[in-house]
What we know:
The complex is a heterodimer. Chain A folds into three domains: 10-241, no CATH class; 360-437 and 505-571, P-loop containing nucleotide triphosphate hydrolases (Rossmann fold), CATH 3.40.50.300; 449-503, no CATH class. The model of chain A is unreliable at 1-13, 326-354 and 587-606 (pLDDT under 50). A six-stranded mixed β-sheet of chain A has the order 8-9-10-5-11-12, sandwiched between helices. A four-stranded antiparallel β-sheet of chain A has the order 4-3-6-7, with helices on one face. Chain A has a two-stranded antiparallel ribbon with strand order 1-2. Chain A has helices at 10-31, 40-63, 70-86, 91-115, 121-140, 158-180, 183-193, 195-200, 205-231, 236-239, 242-255, 262-280, 284-306, 314-324, 337-346, 400-408, 430-436, 453-458, 464-476, 490-504, 520-535, 547-550, 571-575, 578-585, 597-605; strands spanning 150-151, 233-234, 360-371, 374-385, 389-393, 415-420, 423-424, 438-440, 508-512, 539-543, 556-561, 564-569. The relative contact order of chain A is 0.10. Chain A is built from 25 helices and twelve strands. In chain A, helix 1 (10-31) packs antiparallel against helix 6 (158-180) and helix 3 (70-86) crosses helix 9 (205-231). By secondary structure, chain B is an all-alpha fold. Helix content of chain B is 77%, strand content 3%. Chain B is built from eleven helices and two strands; from the N terminus they run ααααββααααααα. In chain B, strands 1-2 form a two-stranded antiparallel sheet. Mean pLDDT of chain B is 89; it is low at 283-287. The interface between A and B is large, with 40 and 41 residues.
Amino acid sequence: MARVTAGPGGRTRQAPGWIVLAAVTVALYAFWGAIPAEFVPTVITGMVLLFLAYAWNIVGGILGELSLATMVFWAMGAYTLVLAMNSGRSAWPALLAAALVAALVGWVIVVVARFLGLDGLYLAVFTLIVFEIARSLVTASEPLGRNEGVILTEFTTVRTSVYLLIGLVMLAIAVNHGILRSRIGRRWLAIKDDPVAAAATGVYTGREKARAYAISAGLAALGGGVQAYYLGYAQPGTALSVELLIAAILAVYVGGPGTIIGPLLGTLLVYGLSAMATSLSTDVDVTLYAQLLQYALAFAVIWLLSTRRASRLGLTAWLGALVRRRPRAVAPAVPGVDARLPDVALSPPVRAVDAEPGPVVLRIDGVNKSFGRVQVLRDITLDLRAGEIVGLMGPNGAGKTTLCNVVTGVIAPDTGTVSLGDKDITRMSTPARFHAGIARTFQSARLFVSLNLYDNVAVGASGGGDHDRVRDLMRRYGIDGHTSSTDAPTFVRRLAEVARAMVGAKRVLILDEPLAGLTQQQHEVILRGVRDVAAGGTAVLLVEHLIQAVAPVCDRLVVMAAGAIIADGAPQAVLRDERVVDAYLGTAVVADPVSDVEEVLGAAER
Amino acid sequence: MLQDIISGTTVGALYVLLALGFTVTLGIGDMVNLAHGSVVVAGMYSVFALNTEFGVSPYLAVVAATVICAALSLVIYLLAIEPSRRSGAGHREQVIYTLVITSGLAIAFQLFFGGDLKGLAFTGADVVTAGGITIAKARLVAFVIAVLVCAVFVVWLRYTTSGQLVRMTGRYTESAYAMGVPVRAVFIAVFCLGGALGGLAGGLLMTILPVSPTIGLDFLLIALIVAIAGRLSFVGVGVVGLAYGIVQAVLSNRIGGSSTALVVFVAFLAVLAAQRIFVGRLAARSA
Lengths: 606, 287
């Protein structure tokens, strides 16, 4: 499967990409003259589409947001250039200024949408409305020539247009390449796959979205300007063309959204056929049939590829698989996790009970939370101390996951406060909490499928020291031999998720059912890691049903039922608490509380 | 002014009808159909073709258009919605697929019917005059049918066992599946019902307005604006849809089409902002 971001050796592998780009640029400039004159208009139109596809790929492919406002920025560039040249000003400073303004508008669109609480589908609709507002403005405006547009009074040459266009296309590819090869690309792909998990891993989703929209918008304005320069006019039919945007979106989706080669492949396929058809005849009907063919073909390609697992990456993945014939389909014989298990099993993880408790790191104070009329958290007060492992248990629906969400800022409490050290963090955003040292895993595995295993663990890493830590953690867990985040065994993926949280968990680590579905030997690998983290001074909150497995490593057990904490203390004492037994069994049927509680609870759990 | 308000109300009722179709697919089935506007246009052309080519009476043609659009929706469902439902890919792929379908349909309309405006001959010929207000009979009939169908539909969905079953299947799909509800059939039914409502609205619109191949985008925008500003609730959709029709009729006679569109879009954003401040976030499903 094609991987688009740099692996562990990312920096050293960057050079060839840039060299290829530079070589292709030089070659294009050198050999442009060899194209027969009658094909030049077709090729130029194709390059315009190619450029738009790359500009859109930044938002729609890498970040995964369906922006339908791109033509607004395109039109900003087009009209600015024409009006500037007509008024005798120099065109290119004006176009650059338009690009900057477009970038600013793109940024504002995301900020406003966030204020309105719109994301996903609703953000797409919002961008469509912005587009319609722009179109109404243009068609109602006399200086912009309403539906007829503005004609460039100055004479322009095809040669200049072509040189500009080649430069622009290569610029757009370079920008895509730079993003995909950097940490920014890693964060954007993470947002595309799972915004909630990305935020919990320290990605400021709103900020990153605004950044992507701004870059894409600035590029689009440049493209609109050059298209208007080539055509000699700016009018709604070209500068605000919905068909052009749809063709670009299709090109991206056919080729492979969020890949570097995808928009090129997609444009060749989507545009190539219809270009051939239209070059045969100038009849309007032929153009329409060609367009219909283009849509049908694109639809068929996306549809057929979507039934495969590699659908997310379109033709790119399919071709990649064809070329490589899966040389690494068989798991490599790395000394993997399983080989190390016996060693771990020999030393069962048991904690020294009389360890000195550290200072309080996390304080949850009087937290209440209701969803509608259901109160899911009732006056929760809980302290976590540095180096302490606290097991949090309780029947399904007790509010454990909601409590985790309150601590990580996914959910805001109705009343009460959460403090980290001396600092009140009740209103702090989820990514800010990650960077302050609180990290978590989720109940169901949430690896980012667009990223390889290393990048998954490294999403939250911010400095050079963090990257050493990523490598160290992966080596320690024996998962450094795996590359794919989708083909790896469940246990490897779970370990990667735990490691991802550990990278950021400098003060508090929250693990939501990390042992679910694993074997006993695998439990011990994970619990051993938990103990190591705690030994480093991190407070660990371990949400788990498997009490027998976690009790030996816990300093304290906290039990929740119906949204309230009903027991909090040393594991042995808590497990013998009558209320705890009641909570699990519903009624007080245990006559002898000293009987084997673990067995009862285990049975209740099953 | 009063004249504009009344003609705006009749169009507004049709907007409610077509937005209701969109709301049902999104609110109950969590399915995005950006081809909804094109389905409306398909309804319009169906009536036009049946009436002018085959001499079918307009209102019989409207019934036929409803059926045709339900069938068209079935095709759209199988092509665009089912693959992403099965793979759990969600809205992103549905948006792409239906966007392509809507673009393809616009071209198909142009190839079949030509790019110019087409209208029915009888439109506006018969008028009713009362208290100084003149209104075309066709508008009155369309209004009455739209209100009746909306009312029947909402009552069915809210207060009958089968309607509640449909709503709950959308909300608790897995439980419904476990209890033996034919989930796939329910989702297909919801999607086709949404399309049928769109087709009916289109058919009725044809009796009062002309059609052209590319107005599908306008109807899609109307559906989106009414459904979202109405917060996917039946009452909300009713209020916003009527208001949309009235505002449009009153303003377009005074400040022109482009400026009216501008006012409506900005007003939509203002409504969203007001809702955000006073009511809170829009939940994905509330119908």
